[in-house]
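Quick start: read one record
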Amino acid sequence: MPTVPKAPDPKKTFLMERKFPHLKAMRIAWASNRRIVRPAIGKEPAEKPVSKPLSPEAKRRNEEIAREVSEYRAFLDKMPFSELEVLHREELEKQHLEDDQARFFHAPSAEADLDYWSKMAHWSLDEAIALSFGKAPERVGLESLANISSTESPFVHEYQRTMELARRAIVWKQLFDPVLPTIFVKWAHENDISLPDELIAKVEARSGKHVDWQQEYETILENHKAYAETTEQLIDTLRKRIAHFESNRSEPKPLHTKERESLMKLVLGMAIGGYGFVPAESRSPTATDITNDLVSHGISLNADTVRKWLKEAAEHLPRQIPDD
């Protein structure tokens, strides 16, 4: 029964072609040991390309390359599968990076005019993402990148990931579409998304640094909270002091009978001597006179109150003994 030839390992084939970029063309030359000669520019083309034998020097060079290819193939065949996987992944990533360098978004014409874009009153979300990579939004955006697979382009992969972060930020009002440049710069900084230094400098120079009103509010609230706590502590201290003083305050002692009598006599003496008070008069003006004098000195006292105390003081007049 005929043996079915084993299909070549695509990973090894890829690695071989990475190591020897012109491997396919070299295989054709090795098969015939001849080289293809095409007509020179400006000359009449032949019916078909003419093949000529390789020179001895070229033949030796081909043999050297063939030996190197054979040795590298043997090296890959002996390599453990896990190591082959790692090598393949690393070379594939290098290939994708090299391919990216040749794509339109890395051309000089795709570089953003950051001075011009920093003057914009707002950016669309797609424009903002393009500018975060230093790319001209006129040339680079979701639409122009749509036909490039993110699995084959590191740039497209990162562009789409950044866009996804921005879209989710919109849901929570961290970003908007369109968005102010200062707001986008702040959001990028908070999320460790790199921006061109020139873009940051120009946006801040034109618009000033974005004021984080939420942070300002929280700072004021925190300061107020600290002030309120301090005030409450002071009030509590005062309450304790007042309670202490009140607990130690002695109650005013009531006047003893003798002291009260002495005070009444004093009032009566001043009323009689100073105001001509006549206790026997039923409508004495003395109470009104005393009240007016007190008012003139800034002391307020009701005339009826004065009259009451004069009446009580009059009771302390010495009783006159009637003549026999």
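The longest helix spans residues 213-248.
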